[in-house]
Each structure stands twice: as C-alpha cells, then as structure tokens.
C-alpha cells in the first residue's frame, strides 16, 4: 500500500458536509480539520497496483463541495 496525504479546500460553509461525506466512504485512515489555506487533510492508503490519481478521482474527488485538492505522495526513506 502507498500512503498519500490529500488536502481539501471546500466551498464556504461546506467543510463539515465534505468531511462527513469523506468519512462515510470509509477510505481514509485519518481525517483532520486544519487551519490556514486548506480546510481538511486526509491520510489515505492506496492499494497496491492502483493508479493514485485514478483511485482518488473515482473514490473521493467527485464529492460536492470540494473546490480544490492537493495530493502529497510519500516515499519510504527509512
């Protein structure tokens, strides 16, 4: 499995709805509300053999209320 972090920017007033919809899909390991430029951050494990972009597009990015995302890939270094 590959770990990625995805930050979400939500439409005004939609952060709680987006967070609940993300949680309901049972795909994220951890989900947090954040301060600053982004509203939410999620830790997601992508199954082996899956294309990260396609997996995220079909699994999460279709949710209403998301206006922008930023995906950070992780790499094992230790």
TrEMBL record:
<dbReference type="InterPro" id="IPR011008">
    <property type="entry name" value="Dimeric_a/b-barrel"/>
</dbReference>
<dbReference type="Pfam" id="PF01037">
    <property type="entry name" value="AsnC_trans_reg"/>
</dbReference>
<dbReference type="InterPro" id="IPR019887">
    <property type="entry name" value="Tscrpt_reg_AsnC/Lrp_C"/>
</dbReference>
<feature type="domain" description="Transcription regulator AsnC/Lrp ligand binding">
    <location>
        <begin position="6"/>
        <end position="77"/>
    </location>
</feature>
<protein>
    <submittedName>
        <fullName>Lrp/AsnC ligand binding domain-containing protein</fullName>
    </submittedName>
</protein>
């Amino acid at each position: 499995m590959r770990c990625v972090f995805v930050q979400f920017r939500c439409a005004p007033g939609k952060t709680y709805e987006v967070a609940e919809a993300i949680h309901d899909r049972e795909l994220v390991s951890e989900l947090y509300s954040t301060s600053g430029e982004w509203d939410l951050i999620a830790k997601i494990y992508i199954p082996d053999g899956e294309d990260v972009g396609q997996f995220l597009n079909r699994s999460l990015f279709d949710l209403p209320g998301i206006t922008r995302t930023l995906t950070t890939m992780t790499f094992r270094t230790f």
